[in-house]
Amino acid sequence: MGALPVFRWRLAPDGYATRRQLRAQGLRPGGQQVAAQLERPRRRRGPLVAYLYRIDLAKPVRPMTPARWAALAKANASRRLCPTCRRDAGYVIPPTLGMCTPCAFPEPSQALRSA
């Protein structure tokens, strides 16, 4: 494979798109190789790089099947389940805590408050 064409930031020709731009159009790269790259210069570090794909070779996004919806719902539910108290927290449990907020920060007992 030869060298990729490099374009300056915001100066890519028509017919190329990033992954996010393809997704916004309902497309995916579909196994094609990176066709070009954008570079945005920065002062004290290396340039930011964005990879571009050809729009004419992109394929439509695969539709969500009922089985994929069910798997996604199960994965999201597991992120809400507290491993300590085994209850649905009602929100995604932060990985930094590893448990729901009431389990991580229990309230002091009433006996300690009145003393």
Description:
The protein is of the alpha+beta class and 115 residues long. Helices cover 26% and strands 18% of the residues. The strands form 2 sheets. A 4-stranded mixed beta sheet has the order 1-4-5-2. Strands 3-6 form a two-stranded antiparallel sheet. It is elongated and about 65 Å long. The chain starts with 5 loop residues before the first strand and ends with a helix. The model has no long low-confidence stretch (mean pLDDT 90).
Rg for CA atoms: 24 Å
- Binned, the helix content reads 25-40%
The overall strand count is 6
Distance between the termini: 76 Å
Shape: elongated
Give the integer mean of the pLDDT values: 90
Compact overview of the structure:
This protein has 115 residues and is α+β, with helices and mostly antiparallel strands.
Features:
alpha+beta; 4 helices; 6 strands; elongated
Record the SSE blueprint.
Blueprint: E1 6-8, E2 16-17, H1 19-24, E3 27-28, E4 36-40, E5 48-54, E6 59-60, H2 66-80, H3 101-104, H4 110-114
Parallel strand pairs: 1-4
Antiparallel strand pairs: 2-5, 3-6, 4-5
